[in-house]
Design brief:
mainly alpha; globular; 6 helices; 115 residues; single chain
Length: 115
Amino acid sequence: MDELKKLNNDLYHPFSHEEICKIQDKFSEKLHEDDLLTADFNSYWMNIAGSLSYMLKGKTKKIPRNQIDELKMTFFEVFPQYSFLEKEISTYPNLHEEYKVYEKVRELMLSYLFN
């Protein structure tokens, strides 16, 4: 749990809008007009951050089931329309670093929840 406490401070950085714009320009043919990449990342990451806040307050049993179900999936499983980005995300260093931190938190939370 100590590691999760330390990682909690790493979750709240300004979003890399510049890199999102680059992604949207580069992959415009793969994105549909109703795809909102920034909003989808924010939604996914806020589920992780919100679930973590329950855990850090000792209220793990109060995490809603739908939040736990989403924690079991990667961003690309929740939003398969962005699967093309999975292999490309490392070319966007700020976004990639943010993604890795959230993934680490998500995986650690799952290990606490199910072990």
